[in-house]
């Protein structure tokens, strides 16, 4: 029960902070739709950075499986570093997507409530139509973003398994075992990058549509 109370208190606090932030930004002429566009841009950029990081991790994995003498521990350290950077990049992507969801929810809730303030039925109908179209475009964007996000965890899990195995077995036999895993990890990273590229493209389309309104 205590944990539930603490969790609910935290949610209320964070919600209050977001509300205060939106209010402060609106006072200086920055509205929720502007914040949404900015956050979609940030999410897009984080995915661009993440796909490059996963490429770097794959290249370091390739260097390990091509090991042909020398300091295997050095290669392990480099692979571990790339894995850690990949985890950080994935966390950043997830955080950016969450921030997009937060402001989008606030924007659509406010927009829906403000429809009731119209006295002109024609203008209200146009605004309601625009809201629905924006929600539809956003839903498609979020679906693509989430699909790309979900592709990251299986890749990270596989990388972590192989990094741990190499750590515990710094020898040629371990390298041989990793060679057998390389093709599967490479395919998963390729699929991840394709999904991220789709998400980046969808983000650009959404941003242009919002700026055109």
Automatic annotation (TrEMBL):
<feature type="coiled-coil region">
    <location>
        <begin position="33"/>
        <end position="60"/>
    </location>
</feature>
<protein>
    <recommendedName>
        <fullName>DUF2959 domain-containing protein</fullName>
    </recommendedName>
</protein>
<feature type="signal peptide">
    <location>
        <begin position="1"/>
        <end position="20"/>
    </location>
</feature>
<feature type="coiled-coil region">
    <location>
        <begin position="90"/>
        <end position="151"/>
    </location>
</feature>
<keyword id="KW-0732">Signal</keyword>
<dbReference type="InterPro" id="IPR021342">
    <property type="entry name" value="DUF2959"/>
</dbReference>
<keyword id="KW-0175">Coiled coil</keyword>
<dbReference type="Pfam" id="PF11172">
    <property type="entry name" value="DUF2959"/>
</dbReference>
């Amino acid at each position: 029960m205590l944990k539930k109370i603490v969790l609910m208190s935290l949610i209320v606090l964070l919600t209050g902070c977001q509300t205060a932030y939106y209010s402060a930004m609106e006072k200086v002429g920055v509205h929720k739709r502007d914040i949404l566009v900015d956050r979609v841009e940030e999410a897009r950029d984080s995915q661009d950075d993440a796909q490059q990081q996963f490429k770097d991790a794959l290249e370091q994995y390739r260097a390990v499986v091509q090991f042909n003498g020398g300091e295997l521990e050095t290669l392990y350290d480099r692979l571990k570093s790339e894995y850690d950077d990949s985890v950080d990049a994935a966390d950043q992507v997830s955080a950016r997507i969450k921030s997009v969801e937060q402001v989008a929810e606030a924007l659509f809730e406010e927009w829906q409530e403000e429809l009731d303030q119209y006295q002109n039925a024609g203008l209200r109908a146009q605004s309601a139509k625009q809201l629905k179209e924006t929600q539809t475009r956003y839903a498609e964007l979020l679906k693509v973003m989430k699909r790309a996000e979900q592709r990251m965890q299986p890749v990270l899990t596989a990388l972590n398994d192989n990094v741990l195995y190499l750590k515990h077995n710094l020898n040629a036999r371990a390298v041989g075992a990793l060679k057998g895993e390389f093709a599967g990890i490479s395919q998963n990273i390729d699929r991840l990058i394709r999904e991220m590229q789709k998400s980046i493209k969808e983000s650009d389309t959404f941003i242009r549509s919002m700026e055109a309104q």
